[in-house]
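Let us work through a complete example step by step.
Step 1: write down the sequence.
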Amino acid sequence: MTQETTSAVRCIRSVQIGKTRKVAIAGRSILTGIHKTPVAGPVKVGPLGLEGDEQADLSVHGGLDKAVYAYPLEHYEFWRSTRTQAGVTGFDADLQPGAMGENLTLQGVLESDVWVGDLLRFANCTLRVVQPREPCYKFNAAMGFNTAVKAMALSGFCGFYLAVDVPGTLQAGESFELVPGPRHMGIAERFQTKVFKHLR
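Step 2: predict the structure and record it as tokens.
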């Protein structure tokens, strides 16, 4: 079993939602919901995710088992550095929460800390860890360089999808408890078996 992070407090640093919109990717107009922006105040969370959030392709994002996408804040520095090395500059070079397409930017929990079936218990909502995010070509476009998917595969910095076990509300700044589930398969291990072998 991998060692958990030593952060004293696990909390939500930011909550994001986004509407689907068409963007130009590789010369084509593609509908995507990857662009998320922070929202203030408590946000309602139902079985299909955060109120006001949309997904374009329900075969890979959204639904009961991928209702909420969470991403560790701790990885943002890696992506800032990686984008700089790839020559990405401009107003968005700093990367704000939501840049990975996540609904929840979390602090104090990494992929190596969570296993399929673990619970994230918040004050007014309980979410269950289901699976890692598998990056698609839209992630390259969102990051601004064409090897972003490979960088995610090699780093293992994928984030994870959550199902909603107990609907309620979530808001930035609130802490949560990580409740271990059966612990048969870790998110990091599952990500490597599903994605890494295809991108080496």
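Step 3: interpret the result. The longest strand covers residues 11-17.
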